[in-house]
TrEMBL record:
Cell wall biogenesis/degradation listed as a keyword: no
Name of the protein: Putative ABC transporter permease protein
Domain of life, source organism: Bacteria
Keyword Cell membrane: yes
Transmembrane portions of the chain: 21-39, 86-107, 119-137, 149-169, 190-212, 274-294
Family under the similarity heading: Belongs to the binding-protein-dependent transport system permease family.
Length: 309
C-alpha cells in the first residue's frame, strides 16, 4: 500500500510537471503573439521613415530617430487638443460612472415598482439607433453643438454600464440594506455608504470602459466641432496629421527624390506608415499607464457583475 501511494504521488508529480510545462509554453506563445505587434509598432515609430519603407523592422529600430514624433507634435494645436482629450476623459468618466451608478442602484432595488419596465426601456435603446441626422438635430436643438458639453452629456448614460453595475449591486447582501433601513437610513445614505463602497470593483471596470471610449473618440469632434480649434481633441488632430501625410505621400511626384535625399542624410522625411506608428504609441500610452492601477478590479468586476442578468 505504501508503495502504491508513493507511485501515485510520483505520477501526480509528473502529471503536474507536464501540465505546468505545457501551460507555460502556451502562455509564452500568447505573450509573444500579443506583445509583438505593439513592440513592432514602437520600433517603427522610432525608426527612420525612409528606412522603414525597406521593411524588415522587427523589435528594434534599425536607424533610430525621434523625427516621427517631432512631426506629430510640431503643431502647437496638437498639445492643446491633448489637454481637451484629457479633460473630456476625466470629466466624462467621472460623470458617466456616477450617473450609471445612480440609475443602476435605483433599478436594483426591489421596492422600486417600475424597475422591470425601466430596465426593458433601457435595453431597447441598445437595439434601436435613431441615426445620425435625428441625433444631430437633437443636439442642435439642445444647444450642444459648438460646446465642450457635446462630449459629455450625450454619453452620460451608457446602458451596458448600467446593466453591469446593476447586476453587481444585486449581489450585495440584502441584510446590509435592511440593517441600514432599521437604523433609519434612506436611499441616499444606503447608496453612498453601502452600495458605492462595495461596488468599487465594478466601478473601476466601468471607469476603464468609459475612459477608453472617451479617449479614443474623434468622430463626434468631426461631426459637431470640426470648425472650432479650441474644442479639437488629440485623436482628431492626429487623424488630420495622418490624412495630410497620406495626401502628401500620394500626391508628391518627387517623393522618390526626397527619400533619396533623406537616405543621403540631407533631410529627414516621414511616411504614412511612420506617422501611423507614432500616432498609435501616442494614443496608447495614457491607457497603458492607467490600466495597471485598475487591473486588480477588472476581472472581479466583470465576473461578479455578470452573475445575474
Amino acid at each position: 500500500m505504501d508503495f502504491l501511494k508513493k507511485l501515485s504521488g510520483k505520477r501526480r508529480g509528473v502529471d503536474d510537471l507536464v501540465f505546468d510545462t505545457v501551460n507555460l509554453i502556451i502562455m509564452l506563445l500568447l505573450i509573444v503573439v500579443m506583445l509583438y505587434p505593439m513592440l513592432n509598432t514602437l520600433a517603427i515609430s522610432f525608426n527612420s521613415a525612409t528606412d522603414t519603407v525597406r521593411g524588415g523592422i522587427r523589435l528594434w529600430p534599425r536607424q533610430f530617430t525621434t523625427y516621427n514624433y517631432q512631426h506629430v507634435f510640431e503643431n502647437a494645436q496638437v498639445l492643446r487638443a491633448g489637454l481637451t482629450s484629457v479633460l473630456r476623459t476625466v470629466i466624462g468618466t467621472a460623470t458617466g460612472v456616477f450617473a450609471a451608478a445612480c440609475v443602476a442602484y435605483a433599478i436594483s432595488r426591489e421596492h422600486f415598482v417600475l424597475r422591470r419596465f425601466t430596465t426593458i426601456i433601457f435595453v431597447l435603446t441598445m437595439y434601436m439607433n435613431p441615426g445620425l441626422i435625428p441625433t444631430y438635430l437633437l443636439h442642435r436643438d439642445l444647444g450642444l453643438i459648438g460646446t465642450f458639453w457635446i462630449y459629455i452629456i450625450p454619453s452620460l448614460i451608457g446602458v451596458f454600464n448600467i446593466i453591469v453595475i446593476r447586476s453587481f449591486m444585486e449581489n450585495v447582501p440584502k441584510s446590509l440594506f435592511e440593517s441600514a433601513q432599521m437604523d433609519g437610513a434612506g436611499d441616499f445614505v444606503q447608496f453612498f455608504k453601502i452600495a458605492l463602497p462595495l461596488s468599487i470593483p465594478v466601478i473601476a471596470t466601468v471607469s476603464l470602459f468609459i475612459a477608453v471610449g472617451q479617449w479614443n473618440q474623434w468622430f463626434d469632434v468631426f461631426i459637431y466641432n470640426s470648425s472650432i480649434p479650441e474644442l479639437s481633441t488629440l485623436q482628431y488632430e492626429l487623424m488630420k496629421v495622418l490624412s495630410n501625410s497620406n495626401a502628401a505621400f500620394n500626391s508628391g511626384g518627387d517623393m522618390q527624390g526626397a527619400m533619396q535625399a533623406a537616405t543621403a542624410g540631407v533631410v529627414e522625411t516621414v511616411t504614412p506608415q511612420a506617422v501611423r506608428a507614432a500616432m498609435t504609441i501616442v494614443v496608447s500610452v495614457p491607457i497603458i499607464c492607467v490600466y495597471p492601477f485598475l487591473q486588480k478590479y477588472f476581472v472581479k468586476g466583470l465576473t461578479i457583475g455578470g452573475v445575474k442578468g
